[in-house]
Design a protein that fits this description.
Structural class: alpha/beta
Distance between the termini: 26 Å
Strand order of the largest sheet: 6-7-8-3-9-10
Strand content: 15-25%
Radius of gyration: 19 Å
């Protein structure tokens, strides 16, 4: 698929893939994927089960090495880089399963995440009180994401939706330039879905967000651009209104154009 030309009113492309492909033995899981993720925009990657969405995520974040193609982050070729180096460059992801420390408080979880950007993660000889310097930044993140009233609760005592918000807080602690969210609404009730959708919208004001999401109502509500995958290939892209009318997308999801 030919990439759309950059226009003057579009924000900067911060994450890009060209001709991205991944083979597992004789099976092609991803083929010729081109994608541009823009600063301060929410970009959705959608498609039916088995479309290759998670594989593309794993390729972009370097959990998998591509068989072919090129990946660029902030104008730097990261195609052969390791995931930890890419994360330090500002590409940070969440996972489908909540990844917080259940027996630490909300504050303690955020402080753990803040240790790396503040160069405290390997200084094991420092007293625990040395982490107090992180409290101001941690409290600001906690307030910004609506978790202030839960600051001193253990993560295990939070609702599922609040745990996902806490996970977003810990990823934001790493100051990402590009945030990748893997099914952030999975398993949530409608009230939590609305809460997390609003938080993602706020988060995207000063960073790019790429998300895999099955909740198409959320995609329609908050996403600026949508890329649709089927069998590892892009079949449509654009705003939600245009891709939802595409007969190929309807066939991929429904098995019929009707």
């Amino acid at each position: 698929m030919v990439a759309l030309p950059q226009t003057q009113d579009q924000p900067r492309v911060v994450l890009s893939a060209r001709g991205l492909g991944k083979d597992f033995g004789g099976f092609t899981a991803v083929n010729d994927v081109n994608i541009d993720v823009h600063h301060a925009r929410i970009h959705a990657l959608i498609g039916p089960n088995g479309a290759g969405k998670t594989t593309v995520f794993n390729l972009l974040t370097k959990f998998l090495q591509p068989t072919r193609g090129q990946i660029t982050l902030l104008d730097t070729d990261i195609t052969r880089m390791k995931p930890d180096y890419v994360a330090r460059m500002g590409l940070v992801r969440s996972f489908q399963i909540s990844a917080v420390f259940p027996h630490l408080t909300v504050l303690e979880n955020v402080r753990v995440a803040l240790q790396r950007p503040n160069r405290l993660s390997t200084q094991f000889w420092l007293p625990l009180s040395s982490l107090d310097r992180l409290n101001e930044r941690a409290d600001r993140l906690i307030r910004d994401l609506g978790l202030a009233e839960f600051r001193d609760l253990r993560a295990t005592d939070l609702s599922y939706g609040r745990k996902r918000v806490l996970e977003i807080a810990t990823t934001l602690a790493l100051d990402p330039k590009v945030l990748l969210l893997d099914e952030p609404m999975a398993g949530m009730g409608q009230e939590d879905v609305r809460m997390v959708a609003n938080i993602i919208r706020d988060v995207a004001r000063d960073r790019a967000v790429l998300m895999v999401e099955h909740n198409l109502s959320v995609v329609a509500d908050i996403c600026d651009h949508v890329t649709v995958l089927q069998r590892g290939e892009i079949i449509a892209e654009g705003d939600y209104a245009s891709v939802s009318r595409d007969p190929r997308v309807r066939t991929a999801y429904m098995g019929t154009e009707e």
